[in-house]
Amino acid sequence: MLLTNATLASMDSQRADTAYGLIAQGAVALDGADIAWVGPKDQVPEAWRNGPVKDLEGRLVTPALIDCHTHLVHGGNRAREFELRLQGASYEEIARAGGGIVSTVAATRLADEDALLAAALTRLDALIAEGAGLVEVKSGYGLDLESELKMLRVARALERARPVRLRTSFLGAHAVPPEYRGRPDAYLDDVCLPALEAAHDQGLVDAVDGFCEGIAFTPQQIARVFDKARELGLPVKLHAEQLSNLGGAVLAAGYGALSADHLEYADEVAAEAMAKAGSVAVVLPGAFYTLRETQLPPIQTFRERGVAMALASDCNPGSSPLTSLLLTMNMACTLFRMTPEEALAGVTRNAARALGVTDCGMIRSGLRADLAIWDVEHPAELAYRIAFNPLHQRLFGGAS
Fold this sequence. Notes:
Strand content: 15-25%
Order of helices and strands: EEEEEEHHHHEHEHEHEHEHEHHEHHHEHE
Radius of gyration: 21 Å
Distance between the termini: 12 Å
Largest sheet: 8 strands, parallel
Low-confidence stretches: none
Shape: globular
Number of strands: 15
């Protein structure tokens, strides 16, 4: 099929001579699930002119969106903690009092796989409805071997239930469960590392994540998890510098991490290390907004050091109950002063890079035909509007 009469925001890094990789009067030739040709509509190759043609009537086409950091699978909610924060309690105070991640752990352990799947599908459907074609899902709310594996099985089941691709991250080093309080290394020995090995053996994990923070794990403890990931041949990523600077981003870069995420307290040393390693900075404005943080991530430093920046919803029940990549883009521009072009790159090209995925995130010949067609005139509108979804159609592997 030939898609024609469209404005293409290709986000192709090879088209850096124009903002958004824009082709104002463009066309895209689809060969099954793949993109066969991209370019101006008056230059369409002869072979594609006589086949099926779809006139997009000037609509905008972008790569399908990518959410590269979510916690879609979980039990329960934490609306009560939302109230407590509004009454003055901090995220850290709630966590130390038994709330936070640990409260979601209890609910997730109690829920069976069917219940977890049904709840996660409602969140996934919201992302798909805004043009998402690839979504990352983490474990980390089980914190015992069977519950961690249960979460990852549910994440894999999401991909079978919906026309979307999923990438899973093992996040066993997310928090210390109550039964191991004060004994984080014992938890790593008894639960986290064996669960990681089991998840790998069962084909349930694509990458390994951790939470390097005062309320979670030290850099030395995260290094133990990353050493196991390296032994298993799995890439790593890290929640780093969200609430303080423990050097997590530098540690992650030292392991060649796909990404370091959050990064509000990251500094120039972290940015330089990430640039050298090619690690993506995944910024998460939903958590910044929900927690009413004031420490901004060092966006300008990332720009100056050439660190690629991705955006994600960080969908989770506590600090970012967000299921909209469009709102994420708007928040990144409004709160973090990212440009609309940076925001769109952050949920397409750079988000794919943060997941180590190379066959999507741009409109380029040879990549997957995962596309979003929008009822807008200019790509900046996607970040400009608030609580408005202008998606006309999503193509997943060339199919609607």
